[in-house]
């Protein structure tokens, strides 16, 4: 399909696979993997291979703006002028009455960088509030804090090219075999060529990734920090540490040593529920390897102690000196295609663009000056869950939701629904009429989707790609940047008169100049003609930067990496009790994506895991008189769901698993995993605790 095909990037996970797009004689889109792309070399996973269905089938698309005059009225089709005039009128009136902090924007890691940038400029620079947060808060904000505190900035030090140079992988709190499949395929291919390469998986579930590993430590949920510290202790005891690196390039080692030596290996094994010998074996594999990569995702991040888990894991890279070297480094995996781009433009309530810090007055002044505004508010905005709490209490009056479906994806959904009902004004800007959040919208704005607009994205390894517009959006759908700029102008802000998307990109690039994420020498022309680049790209003809910190100069004031000491080694979730004796962990299945508004319309993606089922260990099922296929009622302090059970020792005794994708519109009515999860967050990252909820499981009725 190379003739007349155009290059783009997959719109699903953060791996960022290259795609070739072509149209057939009927103008239908066809896709295949780009054999020349450095990420996937022609490979695509099941989701990527079926992307054309999502583009070609417009039967679910939102085609026209819709508005209701009051909650008792149905939504009715209106013109763009009517819709955006109303939005501007309501936002002006709410801000005038209640101040700028009474409005908020909730955006998405699926937004393109230009969209993310404009939304942040609008909210932080011109509306005068920092109430803009993203659904990426739900998947990687703990990793952001981990990187910032360890390396001085939110900087992923590694490249996918390091995979083929590594000889030991520690995959923990992630199932890349299902959720980052092409990345995992590269690990498999590497191991096929070099069987001595070792893979360790730490996960309470025996996932497909764990089944492929040389060693699986099936720990009790929430005991991660104890386990990483135990591995650290064993490395110390065996002298498998890099003293030169520790002495010359780190700070805080003495405190680290003090913490990890407090718990004996035997005690750690008992607390984590793993064999002592497996801890020793894991440490020896890591310590004796020449190039070690740790890889993690939401299993670590989505926890009330998520940042502490990140610290404990990052410390293993520091103690072994495995940073800034070929084939080594810590590597957090992003779940969404542009979660990284969002981080770059400051797309969170506590961040500013180009890795500047909202709490730093000088940084605020610099950003305000760049945007030509008097000041940026010093008050941190509401984070994802805080925003919905504020809607519930009435502190937040109006919310604008872009490209995300919080009525399925946030924790404690019954509370989220209450919050949305309580809001004075809800704008939903999306592509699909299958998003449950639409039920609460006062204003619906149809957005252009993948291939229907241009812009850039950054994948998990800091690789920026350009996505061209290749097809027309259906109906009256418009690119998100156009919608936001149009709204901004109606609010009276003159700084949103862009000629095109490229001009927005150039403005952002100018802002990066002189920073650690400098891409001032990377324009659309280079991206279109030369392909993808890893930031920074800070000189004329610069080829991009595969690996950071090769000079061992970190971005902290001392230029040393910091051992951060977890303030607790134990979990702080609500523990199981007599009433709720089991631990529920939620997660993803191989062929579905987020709340299924895209993958849910591809029938062949439904065959692998057609319905949500509760995975339960046979010994727990036996006690509860539950057999394969029985309907069970799962209850937590927040709510309950009824689903079929499947018996499997892939989950350990005392643990149950339920996937999170299904919402009301996709046929599960109220039986959604997030009815059960708690509205509890990590105090530093504000990331919710999706991986540990105390539940009760009862035999509801026999199948
Ligand atoms: Fe798309 Fe991720 Fe699959 Fe690659 S691995 S094809 S980016 S979903």
TrEMBL record:
Keyword check for rRNA-binding: no
Reactions mediated catalytically: 2 Fe(II)-[cytochrome] + nitrate + 2 H(+) = 2 Fe(III)-[cytochrome] + nitrite + H2O
Swiss-Prot/TrEMBL keywords: 4Fe-4S, Electron transport, FAD, Flavoprotein, Iron, Iron-sulfur, Metal-binding, Molybdenum, Nitrate assimilation, Oxidoreductase, Periplasm, Signal, Transport
The organism's place on the tree of life at top rank: Bacteria
GO BP of this protein: cellular respiration; nitrate assimilation
One Gene Ontology cellular component annotation held by this UniProt entry: membrane
Entry GO MF terms: 4 iron, 4 sulfur cluster binding; metal ion binding; molybdopterin cofactor binding; nitrate reductase (cytochrome) activity
Domain 4Fe-4S Mo/W bis-MGD-type: 3-59
Keyword 4Fe-4S: yes
Required co-factors: Mo-bis(molybdopterin guanine dinucleotide); FAD; [4Fe-4S] cluster
EC class: oxidoreductase
EC number: 1.9.6.1
Its biological purpose: Catalytic subunit of the periplasmic nitrate reductase complex NapAB. Receives electrons from NapB and catalyzes the reduction of nitrate to nitrite.
UniProt record similarity statement: Belongs to the prokaryotic molybdopterin-containing oxidoreductase family. NasA/NapA/NarB subfamily.
Protein name: nitrate reductase (cytochrome)
Annotated source species: Leeuwenhoekiella aestuarii
Lineage per the UniProt record: Bacteria, Pseudomonadati, Bacteroidota, Flavobacteriia, Flavobacteriales
